[in-house]
Amino acid sequence: MRKVGIIGTGGMGRTHARHYKNIGNLELLAYDVDPERLSGFCTDTGAAPAASSDDLMERADIVDICLPTHLHADLAVQSLGLGKATLCEKPMARTVADCGRIAEAAAKSSAPFMPAQVVRWFPEFRRAHDMVVDGAVGDASAIRTRRCGKHPQGAGGWFTNYELSGGVLMDLAVHDFDWIRWTFGEAKAVYANGVDHQWPAGLDYALVTITLESGALAHTEASWADPGGFRAAFEIAGSGGFIEHDNRWSPPLRTVNDKGTFNESPMAPADDPYFRQLSEFITAVESGSEPPVTAIDGLRAVAIAEAAIESAKSGRAIAPATG
Ligand SMILES: NC(=O)c1ccc[n+]([C@@H]2O[C@H](COP(=O)([O-])OP(=O)(O)OC[C@H]3O[C@@H](n4cnc5c(N)ncnc54)[C@H](O)[C@@H]3O)[C@@H](O)[C@H]2O)c1
Predict the structure, then answer these.
(1) Cis before 251 (ω within 30)
(2) Sheet holding 62-65, edge to edge
(3) Does residue 136 share a domain with residue 25?
(4) Atom number, ligand 1, closest to the C-alpha of residue 156
(5) 185 and 221: one domain?
(6) Could you tell me the CATH number of the domain that includes residue 305?
(7) Structure confidence by residue, pLDDT tens digits, 287-318
(8) Cα 66 to middle of ligand 1, angstroms
(9) Is the residue at 285 inside a domain?
């Protein structure tokens, strides 16, 4: 039975653990710098606690990095250096330079690596991708995405520290940047505007225009200024058709109570995008095939986010780094 070592037992660590248990035939090991959090996680998930991240890496066959974004790169490079199959939450790292270090380590290592760009497994985003690739809209010329929610906090409030999270463009819009690039091709230039709606340290609302190498124009709205619950939407206009989606049109199960607004899914566990993402990664590890998202994919999504941040600061259109 393979051992998966989860580093970081906060929100995403718990999500991943739940789905690994549904995949089955995997043993869990975990480490967190906060002993109480680690102990609660181990009680709830049945994971064995590791004494340190070094100890976890020694003992695990597969390393899963669910840490605050600024900590991804060092751990991913270490894990790949030890020859461990490695999954890393998105954004792959806080900067393009750090992504470059991971991509270099992944290229040198015999072990598989995957950045967890989970939007590729959300059914509407996946289906629209497949339809575009199959020519259902002809030449796609105008793409619009929208992703909104309330400002996340994270352990110790790390999301609210711009240096650590990169704000809404790096943390949230990176989902759409990856999906746009995967579906419509490389970005040529990025222009962005943003405001610090409720967070003086950095942008929590932004509008981004991306000129693609194909000549198509994409624009992305990303907001941490929407307390009304999570929202994701897209529109694709092409020479031969139009596709649109808004997750608020028919929220699966929407619950509002004094703790907030929650959208829950009645999906079977096997249809959950996080389950599908993790099972495809485990299958790639077991079969020795290339994982479906590469380090270069992770780097290029972060490069679009970094270009957008730079553009919002300078007022100029920026060409994203290619790594
Ligand atoms: N794919 C998605 O849908 C999605 C959603 C939310 C967050 N994320 C990403 O997942 C990553 C983790 O986010 P989160 O929401 O789980 O954050 P979180 O704050 O809930 O959890 C982070 C955990 O890491 C631990 N930690 C901090 N420093 C550590 C260290 N040096 N060693 C070991 N443990 C340490 C914290 O104690 C905490 O338990 C981020 O990169 C975030 O952008 C992805």
Answers:
(1) no
(2) 48-49, 26-31, 2-7, 62-65, 85-89, 113-116
(3) no
(4) 19
(5) yes
(6) 3.30.360.10
(7) 999 999 999 999 999 999 999 999 999 999 99
(8) 5
(9) no
Structural domain range at position 157: 120-275+300-314
CA dihedral sign, ordered 322, 289, 14, 149: positive
Cβ of 12 less than 6 Å from ligand 1:
yes
One domain, residues 132 and 269? yes
Q: Is 8 touching ligand 1 by the criterion CB < 6 Å?
A: yes
Question: Residues 199, 201, 205, CA angle at the centre, nearest 5°?
Answer: 50
Residue bearing tokens 């520290």? 161
- pLDDT of the residue at 197: 80
Residues 112, 138: one domain?
A: no
CA of 149 to the centre of ligand 1 (A): 17
* Residue closest by Cα to atom 29 of ligand 1: 33
**pLDDT for the residue 203:** 84
How many domains would you assign to the chain?
2
Answer with the one of 77, 94, 117 that is the final residue of a domain.
117
Q: Is the minimum distance from the CB of 280 to ligand 1 under 6 angstroms?
A: no
Reading the block at residue 252, the tokens are 């699966």
d(CA 222, CA 151): 11
Q: Of all atoms in ligand 1, which is nearest to the CA of residue 41?
A: 39
Does ligand 1 come within 6 angstroms of the Cβ of 10?
yes
Point out the residues of the chain with pLDDT beneath 50: none
Q: What is the CATH number of the domain that holds 109?
A: 3.40.50.720
Cα 8 to middle of ligand 1, angstroms: 6
